[in-house]
What we know:
Helix content: under 10%
Oligomer: single chain
Largest sheet: 7 strands, mixed
Mean pLDDT: 79
Amino acid sequence: MIQRMQHKLTAVLLIIALTVSMLPGMAQEVWADPGGAEMSLRTIGTHVFNSVTEGYGTQPFHQETIDNTGDGGTGELTIELGGANPEAFTLSKTSITNIEANKSDYFNITPKTGLTANTYTATVTVSGPGVTAKSFDVSFLVSPAGATYTATIRTYIDDTSSDVTGKVELWKNGSLAAEAEKTETGGYTEIHIGDDDTGISVGINGGPNSNAVNYYTVNFSSITAGTADASSVTATANGSSISSGTLVLKNASVIFTAKGKGAASYTYGWNDAGSTTTATLSIAFLKTPVNVACTVAGVGEPPAEPDYDINGDGYLWTGNSEKIVLSGDNDILNQKMDRRSRSMEIQLPSMR
């Protein structure tokens, strides 16, 4: 009897509980499952904003991404500023409702305008009841108006610290700003050495800074062999002709061209690791000192009188009709062939 009453009481309580939960108008909370959430931030350590001087304008924001690599939602997240100077920064969001499993969301943080000279720091923290809180720091330097700083340019030849020939200058927006190791206010400044723009910049906005300029020695030569009377190697760096022994900027494109004289044809053997056998050897990005040599071996004897020559180099006809392409601005063609049985087409370079 008592046992039956207990079953009835349990059933009544269950019905009451179900009825209450389904009553119209009652709010029901939907919770994400934070048990499997794995939240992380992409910034590690400190994000340093570009330095400025007093009177600066609106600054670029830093966008931070929140990743959830787990198999459950994060639930509601709170984004807060703390640390020494939270009032110096602005957040685009202070909360996120939920980040689903294997999804991401983001927020922006920006330095405020109108700050006086100082270094401002803050800690950004993302937290929630179902995740482990994550944080990173931000830093923003505001310098006094009119402040100047030293930019030091270090020069290296063949990976050894060395002086270089020519005045070292800092250029900005196409105009000379200062000589090296003097001061310049604000911005990123291009480094010129001698008459050349190195393509390297140094940022000296808001504090002293330095950068390095690396040069490598480029040597080249030819070895005459076979039936060739003479041989030569020429070279260019970033499209400009150079002589053997020239100091060339790191990462420059260097092209070597070998040439023979006095034979009917030639073979080419370079001492590079790739065993190049053509007349041209290319280095896309110069990374080390270079000392290349090419063995130019002549094959066969040329006729006593070539059919024609271009800039003094003789050539033979290979058929009854020939096309000659003059690719240089000052190429000179001398025809020495018997014109009775052959025709010739000359293609001149386009006028520039």
